[in-house]
Amino acid sequence: MSRISSDKKIDIKGLVCPYTFVKAKLAIESMELGQILEIVLDHEEASRSIPRSMEDHGQKVLHLEKINDSDWLLYIRKDKE
Amino acid sequence: MNFTDEQLQRYSRHIILPEVGGRGQAKIADAKVIMVGAGGLGCPVGFYLAAAGVGTLALIDNDTVELSNLQRQIAHNVHTIGLPKVESAQKTFTALNPDVKVVPLKVRISKDNILDLIRDYDIVVDGSDNFPTRYLVNDACVMAGKPLVSGAILRFEGQVTTIIPGKGHCYRCLFEEPPPPGLVPSCQEAGVLGVLPGVIGGLQATEVLKLILGKGEPLMGELLMYNALNSSFRKVRVPRNPACPVCSESPTITELVDYNEGYCTLQ
Lengths: 81, 267
Description:
Chain A is of the alpha+beta class. Chain A has one domain: Translation Initiation Factor IF3 (2-Layer Sandwich), CATH 3.30.110. Chain A has 2 helices and 4 strands, in the order E-H-E-H-E-E. Chain A has a 4-stranded mixed sheet, with helices on one face. In chain A, a hairpin with a 5-residue loop joins strand 3 (60-66) and strand 4. In chain A, helix 1 packs across helix 2. The longest helix of chain A is centred in the middle third of the chain and has 13 residues, at 44-56. Chain A is globular and about 30 Å long. The termini of chain A are far apart. Chain B has an 8-stranded mixed sheet, with helices on both faces. Chain B is globular, with a radius of gyration of 18 Å. The model of chain B has no long low-confidence stretch (mean pLDDT 94). The chains are: A alpha+beta, B alpha/beta. Chain A binds chain B through residues 18-19, 21-23, 25-26, 29-30, 53, 56-57, and chain B through 3, 8-9, 12-13, 15-16, 18, 21-23.
């Protein structure tokens, strides 16, 4: 498992789209430029759509990894207000 | 703004828009909008602004709901016939979104009360059905420096414009004086396709949200006209009139005017 030090962590297991992205986006909004958000999620579609949507919004996807049978770990760096 | 789980669900389609986000939704929740008229235009404007989560929505209208209103005034229904329109609309908008504080103001707007009524609000929406009110609202907004989203409908045609005092045109830059009462369409001519206020009111609500969010290009210095029969939109530029009687550097109208007499007040 990758170890990137994050400034904020959210667990959005159990949530489905679009609330997965809504939660992730609100978390990013509350952070400073350059800070890193760590997200744990278990919705497969979101493991693809959140990274894509974050890139569309100008944020940097640092790392995405399936960490067990059900969960993904995702690191996003805030590059844009 | 800390959203509740219910608010996250309700506003999720806004929050995921880059132009809105959580911050934009918080601006919408903080906004205070006052609407003149809870009729054909006021109903759809209020409906969509309530759905959008506008924090405070004041409604000014002195009329009561009649059966003949229901062909187009979609916030009212058979159970609210006889009630003040502002109360009928309040019930509808609150049922749609309890987050919204609806302020019902059952008064006839006049030169003596309008400045007090609009003072505490950020944006004014004109959905009135007569020229005296249209000019009164324009002049009051220019004098008070309040952004005004103005809409009008008749038969199959409607128009929308956004007035930002000190920046763009005002209604009197477009038409200096109200038309004489004889030139205003008579009662039989004043029919309106029931869906038309839905189109124009939807455009007005869009303008209000853009002003709140500070996104996009409002219809400042422009008049957007819609013709339902041709399915056509036309946008015309409306320059600021340097000799405008109300919004120019040296206005000739410095007090509000009530043009009361001689206009048809068809329900």
